[in-house]
């Protein structure tokens, strides 16, 4: 799920991030702002009240005022659904129905607007309004639905939520139209101690502070409210950042240049493509200043005050997640098997698996939340109508037809992408036929009855893409093949005996022990039984074939019913195409069959076993086929397993109990919030490509995937709770096992401060994130007792670096007003230990070179008392050579083995070609030679003194004479050769300037072959003396031109220009 450019991060530093296709500002139709006459009715009270219904100009609240001028409001962000027409609620009481009916002759359903809201999927409340015409009803229904699901409602900035809080205060006025101060205090705190703190902040801001005081809206504008916010929170941590950037204590404003530097160095993702996401420039900085600086004089000067800096930090230009992540950012044209699909288990349940209730409404709520796979357990109804119920439990049943109608009405309200209905069918043939007919009648064209022409049901063919299946409902049910005359009887695993459906239309014995039946939840499609009626004849095993057994039911038909069963099975089987459940035998068999349209389901224990035993094969299986994983039968409390475990294996349909908003469900809701809440997330490339291999248990960097490093510093919190309790923050990461970090990073507890706790923690470092595309961060604030305050799920890919605010959410994912954390985030590519300096140099070579120069200047402090040679470099070289000659000619007798004395007092022998290697030399630590050599030869750390025999005696040595003669001949030959080349080149050029260039080129060529490095600057005369001695005596061979020559050690790079054509080498 990479952002454009192939890298995670935000381009917010390069330009505004509000240009997202889906991240549009909230626009409220003028008709809703003006208001409309409705009758609000309540079924419980049986009362209908005339009200004026309207929406505030920002689209935050739905409010109604009655004839007594009493007002009430509803947060639009909590609205889950808005209905009119057939699915709107109408009064059951005839008298109440008569009261609310007014206006035109349109039906009451058509004139009714039902608003559904709630804090979870189970506890839904309804507010009903009736108007005079169906056109008004339709306008309000569509507009409210659009406002409720606008991305900004949930993903707004800190400043937007501050505006929302202020808007609420301006709406809840008294009869005189003024804002009660007690409402202001109540918004921030509910305890006595913090109430005094709010009152003090009101005083500082020049506002009334008495609990019975009021203030007019004209004297309490948003700017006044913002100042009150600053007084309460102080934001000293932001001011500290500002002062560090400004630098000079006397300066109160930030220049445009300083802002540019901050945007590029701190707020920008260093991995972003510079062409696609240009660096911020002065023009960009001035745009930010113009937008957020409240002082017009500062704007003219191009300066940003602390006030403007804070506003920028809280704005849409500083989101913590790249806005593109909320858009439809994934490629939706790939095979269905290439996506994670938001899935529900036993969708009908609202509570406990054995004793809970069933609900039609929860199907709507799950689909509206982006769930794209719901489960339906069909059983025979008492009135010959199929019902949905959890078999062999105390759960009440619900009519199957009503569930199918709810699905038809809600399936595509919030997402156009395909919905999978996972059928678990325990009905007799007659009721199966009814289910098939209901599907056709109710779903109509939405039902995918036949496979697409472009994607045949044949081996090797891929599944169609979500785009091709838009607004289509796909049935998942066991498919009966016409060439089968019998079921191939198979023995299920011991854990599943007597509890599995034995085929389409067959159920397990009613006489099975109740607890054993209860141990199985609704999903009976386990690995042992899915293939009884779907394998082809050539794949049937050699087990004894038995005829289909009769189905026990309320209608125990005899032999004549057998034919009806087959016909009934055929009807519902005809609706099954791309998702055909089969028995799972092995990954090898699935690969051999190569049927993308066949899928298998596993409970969490079976899936875990497969994952542990064959992780790579599991990932490869999910590249081509679908798999569904559901909770184990022992989870009677409807708890959930961690879905990340099976996302890591590429499992698409990881089904959870939506009625339980535990950590697993919070993670599921958080992950599927992205990609425009379609319910589909494209899997990472390595989990899709056949030619790539991914081990979910990999701990080292995966070939071809750039691992990441994430650092998060929790600096502070704002309005975490209205209680006077201690708070702390936990930071976890979920991903591959190697990337998952839980319960490790936790801030200290800040006692008795829910308004502005200052944590200021050291960074929590996730040093190596092996697969960033599959990883997500969970930030969670807790009371000191361990009670969750709020949390947020953030994908690692898309995380914006720098100083950011993050607004926290409830367990359902709804925003908590004013509740936020202030963080410093660093994201970069992972660099192994020991290579960080090298990586830094590659990332910023100019800075690295500057650092080298700085270090050179620092080292110069240690050597600035040494005599510096004067004159030009040529003169320095001549003087040094003359001095060397004079010193060497005045020394004593020669020795066949000259030695160098090291700086630590030990000697290092110099060996001629005929000498044996040095064996008594001490170990020398690697220094500069090590930088350019794979092997690490011993080297001279510091040469202080040369011990040599007099030149006269050396020249008398027979070996020296022979070597000298040999070298002189070779030197003469080389000189003639180079002189000839030089003459040839010079003759080709007419001007002396060109000739000089050629000569220099020749010299450079020779220098490259023969010159050595400048190891150190100290001891120039000493080295020259020794090099001259070696040259004269001819100790070295001129054939070994690849070795490091020693003559240039003291001369530096400049000396190479005057080098001789050939130099002796060691």
UniProtKB/TrEMBL annotation:
Q: Where is the composition biased (Basic residues)?
A: 477-491
Which cofactors are required for activity? Ca(2+)
The free-text note explaining how the cofactor binds reads: Binds 1 Ca(2+) ion per subunit.
Coarsely, its chief localization is: cytoplasm
Segments for region (Disordered): 1-22, 477-567, 862-905, 1041-1066
Q: Which UniProt keywords apply?
A: Calcium, Coiled coil, Cytoplasm, Hydrolase, Lipid degradation, Lipid metabolism, Metal-binding, Transducer
Keyword Cytoplasm set for record: yes
Q: Which residues form a coiled coil?
A: 957-991
Q: Which reaction does it catalyse?
A: a 1,2-diacyl-sn-glycero-3-phospho-(1D-myo-inositol-4,5-bisphosphate) + H2O = 1D-myo-inositol 1,4,5-trisphosphate + a 1,2-diacyl-sn-glycerol + H(+)
Q: Which GO terms describe its molecular function?
A: calcium ion binding; phosphatidylinositol-4,5-bisphosphate phospholipase C activity
Q: Identify the PANTHER family for this entry.
A: 1-PHOSPHATIDYLINOSITOL 4,5-BISPHOSPHATE PHOSPHODIESTERASE CLASSES I AND II (PTHR10336:SF149), PHOSPHOINOSITIDE-SPECIFIC PHOSPHOLIPASE C FAMILY PROTEIN (PTHR10336)
What is the protein's name according to its record? Phosphoinositide phospholipase C
Q: What species is given as this protein's source?
A: Photinus pyralis (Common eastern firefly)
